[in-house]
Design a protein that fits this description.
The chain has about 270 residues and is an alpha/beta fold. The chain contains ten helices and seven strands. It has one domain: Spore Coat Polysaccharide Biosynthesis Protein SpsA, Chain A, CATH 3.90.550.10. The longest helix has 23 residues.
Length: about 270
Amino acid sequence: MADARDIVCALAARDEAGRIANVLRQVARAGVRRVAICANGCTDGTVAEARRVADTLRVELAVVEFAQALGHDAPRAIAAMEAWRRWPDSAAVLMVDADWQGSFGPMLADFLQDALRHPEAITGIWGRVRAADLDRRWQRIVRRAGAPASLRPFLLPQVIPLSAFARVSPRFVASPGLFFALTRRQGIPWRVYEAWDGRLVGNPAREASAQARVLDVLREDARAAEIALFGGSGDPPPLWPGRRDWREVEAWMSCIRGPHLCREHHDLV
């Protein structure tokens, strides 16, 4: 069975110079030795700090930088693609946030061990949305799609086997609802790690306006998932518009070439 050294971590970071060191240390504590970062319009020393800490930890680091910030979740897709492109021999991609605080490394190690015991499945975590109607909507979506009702496919951490990217392009990571729908349409199983305790992972408090924007995005994701899964069309919808702008993501990914990134992988979904 593979171990954490066979996993590559994908991080999206925007002005996280004060927090990214802790995230890299905790990821390394969990056994991960490869990290791909999408620096999303950073104006501070995020990249320099990431390189300094990675060198200290002896972690391999790949960085993709964008001068202007991309739309919501788009940097995750870039980081996932770069992880796959840079280390195609990896078993899976681990998605985490670059602003996590606290000593979550041991809990992450347990999460990875659990995920690696199910190498064909995408492993996520359970959670709740701060809007009861939206949470019930997501519960219906995941249950109807044949996934555990407690799963929330937009929450991190998440482990995605690289075999999944051969069937559904990592560009769709930029829309978690659509990625969930398309992977289920391809028969890729999703499972939930119930032991994850979000209380042990600190995040900076968001303002009410920012929380409202996140809920709006989750509603868009739910709509995209519903159309892709239950809309009755044989063709998947395009990357969902609304509050996201995909042009930079598509332009960057269209330039990626490599022996493992053949045209079929891009055109399949």
